[in-house]
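Example 9 (inverse folding). The structure is encoded as follows.
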């Protein structure tokens, strides 16, 4: 393989696919990035066998071929190269790959390209295509509620349910839940899948703005594809819990307030909470919402004027969970809805019926 490429394009592609490189896999080759030159393009691929990423860009291909280089070395080298054309030369009978830049060169020992796992391309029909900004907004609003629990893998993913053209996206770690609905025109097929939260988090980082993402699903995999970037991932097996039964259908108290005011008050109050259990109290009376902390570290008392409907109350929340939910709302104003001090609190953006997050309170003495 012999190919000439621009340093900036190569660096961008390496940084994209490196997100799928395995760091704790017994197969050493999975710590590498596969480079393949075909016609007038170069393809870079990495995988940890659960998720794979492929990226392509135009290059001057002198001799087609492939090689696999350790991701650690190639990424650090390309990042430090001068802004000059880069010649990559991999001899067919050698594991050493030479990288030339100007009058200088570096040789890196790689792995046999034929031993690198294939990048599967599903042949199933397209499920849907979404602008990346729409997909990015959905992911950011729900993925924070997913868990990281090896013993309960279904909670490590985000549930996508497509019925009659309505897509519902849900994540929960059993302490909090986020739900988003989106109408998809001309997509009538049913879909029930759990996508790893990690997959979605990486996806929205690697796809450029203004791109449209084609989504293809098989029984155990999902492929997200643009014209130059592919991300394929295993789906999580298992039954996602019935999220509908935990979402309150009515409220005894509803509060309307500015999102930023509550975020800032919560962040200040969090400064004096225990790092392992950052609990804050929220109380409401006569159109004043109070955020407070009172412990050995000190005392915080914050008043926020609100519009109140219903009864006064007092409740306690994990401040970190509350802030995650508030920052995901994406609205200047929110409604907080409560049915009791030990029932889930619901956060809704004002004027948007297609999104909510739910947060279980913390039981405290006297609350």
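The amino acid assigned to each position is listed next.
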């Amino acid at each position: 393989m012999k190919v000439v490429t621009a340093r900036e394009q190569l660096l961008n592609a390496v940084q994209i696919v490196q997100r799928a490189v395995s760091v704790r896999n017994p197969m050493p080759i999975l710590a590498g990035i596969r480079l393949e030159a075909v016609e007038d393009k170069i393809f870079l691929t990495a995988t940890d066998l659960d998720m794979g990423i492929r990226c392509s860009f135009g290059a001057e291909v002198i001799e087609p071929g492939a090689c696999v280089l350790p991701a650690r070395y190639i990424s650090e080298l390309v990042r430090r190269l001068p802004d000059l054309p880069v010649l990559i030369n991999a001899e067919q009978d050698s594991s050493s790959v030479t990288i030339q830049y100007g009058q200088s060169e570096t040789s890196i020992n790689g792995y046999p390209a034929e031993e690198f796992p294939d990048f599967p391309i599903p042949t199933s029909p397209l499920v849907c295509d979404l602008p990346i900004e729409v997909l990015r907004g959905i992911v950011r609003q729900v993925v924070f509620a997913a868990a990281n629990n090896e013993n309960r893998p279904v909670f490590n993913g985000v549930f996508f349910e497509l019925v009659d053209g309505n897509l519902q996206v849900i994540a929960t770690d059993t302490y909090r839940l986020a739900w988003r609905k989106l109408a998809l025109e001309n997509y009538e097929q049913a879909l029930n899948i759990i996508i790893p939260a990690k997959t979605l988090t990486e996806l929205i980082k690697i796809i450029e703005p203004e791109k449209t993402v084609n989504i293809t699903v098989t029984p155990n995999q999902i492929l997200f594809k643009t014209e130059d970037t592919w991300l394929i991932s295993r789906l999580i097996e298992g039954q996602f819990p019935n999220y509908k039964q935990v979402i309150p259908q009515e409220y005894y108290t509803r509060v309307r307030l500015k999102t930023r005011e509550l975020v800032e008050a919560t962040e200040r109050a969090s400064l004096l909470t225990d790092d392992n259990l950052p609990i804050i109290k929220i109380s409401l009376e006569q159109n004043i919402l109070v955020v407070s902390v009172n412990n050995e570290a000190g005392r915080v008392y914050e008043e926020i004027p609100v519009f109140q409907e219903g009864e006064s109350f007092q409740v306690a929340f994990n401040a970190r969970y509350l802030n995650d939910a508030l920052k995901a709302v994406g609205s200047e104003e929110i409604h907080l809805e409560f049915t009791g001090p030990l029932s889930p609190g619901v956060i809704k953006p004002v004027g948007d019926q297609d999104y909510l997050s739910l947060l279980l309170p913390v039981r405290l003495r006297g609350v």
